């Protein structure tokens, strides 16, 4: 082996090829059997590093690769049986350095078996795509990060030179992401594991930062699709942290964060009994871009991400003043947003719930100024609920005369919105009145009567026929004199339970 490395430089090429070909004939599985012992000899570790280097040095030699019954291809075919777990990070980086400067970036896409085997060798020796019961790899995380970094560098070069189609680029990026979610870093607590996986995701996300604008836009959609199809529950959290820390575009960051939070609450992750706590820790928005980030979230409909941000604000300082500040931010946002699709509509319920909760805390202070502010906010909320409950959009000239486009929101959403609007019109009857205590009878103002009639009239409409029971139940709840503003959260929970049982990010308000 030492002789082989001596002839690699400065000797005739024939000597190098002859020695290399001879070394490929050795039964390396047997020679390196000591590597599987609990305490292998230092020589064994050195020999494994030399073997890895040798295979990468020879892998680019066409004569050896194209040879009939090529011993090199035969050796490369045994990659999975060899003991790469002893390769340390310094040696692995040296191998990658040679690979990077002596192989073309197109090797990633090459279909020849030699190219595919070389790629598999680099991947397996890093500790990626290996069976879970195999030996623990030395320096597994930095090696996998180095491998991923190299792959991203080659893909970025191909993209910048126009040598790779968008479809293939998407496919290769998905492969890298797939490898990360099955990677199992050895001997780590949950926090160290989170940071390790996050560092790997960061490498892949650099593809968006390095790419031309059209490609980056395409990959942004690809990442959302991948998240939607491949991950859910706790697995998605390292990617959420990576997106916040590495994506240069604030828009990409806001969109990826929302996709991650949505995936976290996917159906199949239910058995993990997930709460919002892990997300609060994982969403780490850079301070420098926070305002721009919040504006992008509002524009994109990333309402779950904004909800997490508000929870973080509430956790950072538990004072009445801070809670009022958050309530004012939320009320300002509610005036700006209108969900653009059925997928976004239920996210608003979290915001409504938070407004009710924070409003009640402020009214408990018996401060007339605070109570006036709360009344103004609740009246604004009620008018927004009426607006989103309309069957046609009221914006534009046609909207003003009742001929606007059909609302993109669902019938069940309109039931919740009209129900909540009617409830608030009863509990906040005027600009200087609020029902904070139940009474023995209920005096309805004309406005409250109108809101209640609008809700009850839905039962006679054909499009709400499947929600008749829920509408009647809601109307009964609202008319009950024993209910006051304190029961607003229970009323919202009642509506959410019967109309949105499958939406799991609402579980904390049920």
TrEMBL record:
Cellular component, GO annotation: cytoplasm
Gene Ontology biological process: autophagosome maturation
PANTHER family assigned: ECTOPIC P GRANULES PROTEIN 5 HOMOLOG (PTHR31139:SF4)
Annotated protein name in UniProt: Ectopic P-granules autophagy protein 5 homolog
């Amino acid at each position: 082996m030492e002789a082989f490395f001596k002839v690699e430089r400065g000797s005739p090429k024939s000597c190098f090829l002859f020695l290399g070909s001879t070394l490929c004939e050795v039964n390396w599985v047997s020679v390196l059997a000591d590597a599987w012992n609990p305490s292998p000899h230092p020589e064994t570790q050195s020999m494994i590093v030399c073997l890895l280097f040798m295979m990468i040095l020879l892998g680019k030699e066409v004569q050896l690769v194209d040879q009939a019954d090529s011993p090199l291809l035969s050796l490369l075919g045994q990659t999975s049986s060899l003991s790469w777990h002893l390769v340390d990070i310094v040696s692995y980086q040296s191998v990658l350095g040679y690979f990077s400067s002596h192989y073309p970036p197109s090797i990633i896409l090459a279909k020849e078996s030699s190219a595919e085997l070389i790629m598999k060798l680099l991947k397996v020796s890093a500790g990626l795509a290996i069976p879970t019961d195999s030996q623990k790899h030395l320096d597994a995380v930095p090696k996998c990060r180095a491998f991923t970094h190299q792959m991203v560098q080659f893909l970025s070069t191909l993209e910048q030179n126009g040598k790779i189609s968008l479809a293939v680029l998407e496919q290769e990026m998905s492969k890298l992401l797939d490898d990360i979610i099955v990677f199992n870093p050895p001997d780590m607590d949950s926090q160290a594991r989170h940071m390790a996986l996050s560092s790997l995701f960061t490498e892949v996300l650099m593809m968006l930062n390095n790419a031309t604008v059209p490609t980056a836009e395409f990959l942004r959609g690809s990442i959302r699709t991948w998240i939607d199809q491949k991950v859910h529950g706790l697995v998605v959290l390292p990617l959420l942290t990576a997106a916040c820390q590495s994506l240069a575009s604030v828009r990409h960051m806001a969109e990826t964060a929302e996709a991650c939070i949505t995936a976290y609450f996917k159906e199949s992750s239910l058995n993990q009994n997930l709460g919002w706590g892990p997300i609060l820790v994982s969403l780490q928005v850079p301070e420098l871009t926070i305002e721009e980030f919040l504006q992008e979230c509002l524009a994109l409909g990333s309402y779950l991400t904004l909800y997490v941000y508000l929870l973080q604000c509430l956790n950072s300082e538990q004072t009445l003043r801070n809670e009022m500040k958050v309530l004012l931010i939320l009320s300002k946002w509610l005036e700006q947003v209108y969900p653009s699709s059925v997928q976004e509509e239920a996210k608003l319920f979290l915001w409504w719930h938070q407004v009710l909760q924070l409003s009640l805390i402020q009214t408990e202070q018996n401060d007339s100024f605070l109570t006036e502010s709360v009344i103004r906010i609740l009246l604004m909320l009620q008018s927004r609920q009426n607006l989103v409950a309309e069957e046609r959009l009221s914006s534009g000239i046609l909207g003003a005369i009742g001929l606007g486009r059909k609302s993109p929101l669902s019938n069940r959403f309109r039931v919740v919105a009209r129900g909540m609007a009617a409830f608030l019109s009863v509990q906040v009857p005027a600009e200087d009145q609020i029902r904070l205590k139940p009474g023995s009878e209920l005096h309805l103002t004309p406005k409250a009567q109108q809101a209640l009639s609008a809700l009850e009239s839905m039962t006679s409409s054909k499009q709400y026929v499947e929600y008749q029971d829920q509408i009647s139940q809601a109307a009964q709840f609202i008319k009950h004199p024993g209910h006051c503003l304190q029961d607003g959260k229970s009323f919202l929970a009642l509506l959410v339970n019967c109309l949105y049982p499958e939406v799991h990010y609402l579980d904390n308000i049920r």
